[in-house]
Amino acid sequence: MRLTTDFIAELIRAANEADQLTHHEINRLFDRSIDTIRDVREQTGIAEPHRARDVLIDLRIASERARDLSAAEVRDALVDAADVIRSLKVLLDRTE
Question: What mean pLDDT is predicted for residues 16-26?
């Protein structure tokens, strides 16, 4: 789980420097966030939500629109991803 904690910190650092990130770096962070959320959901046994407002959908759209997003939008999406991953990690830690 240390890798997950490190990734959460990386997302927060990136959010604080959103105006300095390249589109490639933004895409990569969003894609890694999607993969991490899916992996941790699987580990916790949480089924994929089938809601229109699932964070994975929002992150996929943000990844595809990375060139068009403002620094504030990138920051908000990265913070949201970090928050979801942190919440899932806490849940996973409780089940172990």
Answer: 96
- Both tokens of residue 13? 């650092």
Half-sphere exposure of residue 20, counting CA atoms within 13 Å on the CB side?
A: 5
Q: What pLDDT shows up at residue 34?
A: 95
Count CB neighbours of 88 within 10 A.
19
Quick one: three-class SS letters along 50-76?
Answer: CCCCCHHHHHHHHHHCHHHCCHHHHHH
Query: Whose CA is closest to 39, among 83, 87, 85, 90?
Result: 85
- Is pTM beyond 0.70? Reply is yes
Per-residue confidence (pLDDT) for residue 8, from 0 to 100? 96
d(CA 4, CA 6): 5
